[in-house]
Amino acid sequence: MKIRTKAQTASAGLAVLLALSACGGTAGSDSTETSKTSNTADISESVQPDEKAVSLLPASYKDKGELTVAMDLHYPPTTFLAEDDTTPIGLNPDIARLVAKKLGLKLKFENTKFDTIIPGIDGGRYDLTITTMSATAERLKVLDMIDYFKAGNSVAVSAGNPLKLTNESLCGKNIAVTAGSTGQLKRLPALDEQTCTSKGQPAINAVTLPNVQEALTQLASKRIDGVFYDTTSLAWAEKQQPNAFTILTPQVNVGSSDITAVGLKKGSALTPALQAAVQSVLNSPEYKKSLSNWGLESGAITDAKLN
User: Are residues 142 and 158 in the same domain?
Assistant: First the structure.
């Protein structure tokens, strides 16, 4: 077994931070060197508008000629920035570009914190979000949501799992969640109820942090016991920084659906056109290509269901 010194652990934590920030880099297990991806190819370049989707588009959007999509660009491999620190890349930017092309519209990205996206849509600052957001009862009070991808949550613990934790033995532990996420609002509370409080055990202590980079840095420095986050992003980070942490299995799918959805203002005149565009994307070879590019083939779905 390889024994890591405190200095090496700190180095690994920094490398994870770099790998998960606006880069998606790779590094040796004891190095902070990271190589950012420069892949900024537009997967929608040759895609043509979908006649059905365009026919459903409200005149106001045709006149404006543009969609504004809100994303928190800090979550590889679904939503992050390329080497230039300006170009959005990942599955969600790919989907956004494809949807805009299907509607014959230009696309404007707005990089914003996850927990400010819904208020921004409700207030009219953004037209939609494609940011690995699942449909919950609370969100559906203010949003129309259209399915496009299957995800899930997992728990990351210190490398080698020295505390021998499982999904069922997190009672009394400090587990990080990101602000406004389904993990914070639904899944970790449901897991706590299922495995801890209903059995008279100490509650899981949810530590709310602004993003997954901060959470993994705190995990590396032993300030928390685990990170509860999207399986796809944790798996990506694990590839970029081998041996920095361990992902518990199986993934946790309690408290809400593991299907993620496009979100826009509830009752929006744009909803029918957007649903038709998303369905056209799901039927396209570019959808499968994007999933393959980011190692997310298992998340493919076929029905752009309106929740």
Answer: no
